[in-house]
Amino acid sequence: MVISGIRLPMMTSLIVWAVIWEIAGHTDAGFILPPLSRIIWRVFEIVPTASFLDALQITGRAFLLGNAIAISIGVPLGILMGRSVIADRLLLPWVNLFLSAPLSALVPVIMVLFGLGETTIVLVVVLFSMWIIVLNTRAGIRAISPSLVEMARSFGANGWQAFSRIYLWAALPEILAGIRLGMIRAVKGVVIGQLLVSVVGFGTLFEIYQSHFLMEHFWALLLVLFSFAFTLNELLAGLERRFAYYAASR
Fold first, then answer.
1. Separation CA 201–CA 189 (nearest Å)
2. By C-alpha distance, which of 93, 64, 97 is closest to 190?
3. Who contacts 103 (Cβ-Cβ below 8 Å, separation ≥6)?
4. Measuring CA to CA, which residue among 6, 192, 235, 22 is closest to residue 106?
5. CB-based contacts of 106, cutoff 8 Å, min separation 6
6. Which residues have a Cβ under 8 Å from the Cβ of 7 and sit 6 or more positions away?
7. What is the separation of C-alpha 207 from the centre of its chain, rounded to a whole number of angstroms?
8. Secondary structure of residue 136 in the 3-state scheme
9. Which end of the chain is more exposed for a tag (fewer CB within 10 A), N or C?
């Protein structure tokens, strides 16, 4: 970011917001928005506790399982849509519909079908994560050079060989971008699932902090989740950049 010819670090905007937050926390708004310094201190207090570690284990299990299912379904489905016109015309309207729909409204339906348990939370994670993976994979497959596909055919590659050695690698940058966006959406999905469906994991902690008006604890937990989502995004973005040469070589 360059302002008046001066290049500022990317973290400058976060530092500015942190200063504004700290100042606002010392005004009358402090009862609902405590100072950031006290929230950071509270993070170090709650993270080593048994209740936080138990919630992290439950939430992490649902998050990882849901994303694994979303990736294992979303990537092959995106490849199918990218290679087959019929599949694309049949499935694309549904993918766009689920991607643009307010998915939180579907959570009660899943709850009725699968009950109040971890299965429902995992399905909510899949619902939030999968569709953007499908669309990005489809876009990556459609961007593959036709000469690459013709080369695979001329060498007699079967369907599995074309999938595992051509399509998957050639579309890898877009697939990784879809997985990154899907996992960020999954963070929202797992928290919504635990709050609306079954008050477990971090949903339990949010419920306790909210009901007892422990706003420093509440914001500290939000800060942990935001930090996790930001770190996850940066790690996957770095992985995308490492594989960017595949896009350049197509």
1. 13
2. 64
3. 124, 127, 128, 189
4. 192
5. 127
6. 1
7. 23
8. helix
9. N
Six-digit token string for 12: 């400058």
Q: Do 137 and 175 form a contact (C-beta atoms < 8 A)?
A: yes
DSSP 164: I
Backbone phi and psi for residue 66, each to the nearest 5 degrees, phi listed first? -65, -40
CA distance 65 to 247: 29
190 contacts 59 by C-beta, under 8 angstroms: yes
Q: Are 135 and 164 in contact (CB under 8 A)?
A: no
For the stretch 151-209, pLDDT in tens is 777 777 777 777 777 777 788 888 888 998 998 888 888 888 777 765 678 888 888 88
For residue 49, give the 3-state DSSP assignment: coil
Residue 2 has pLDDT above 70, yes or no: no
For the whole model, what pTM was predicted? 0.79
CA distance 71 to 97: 19
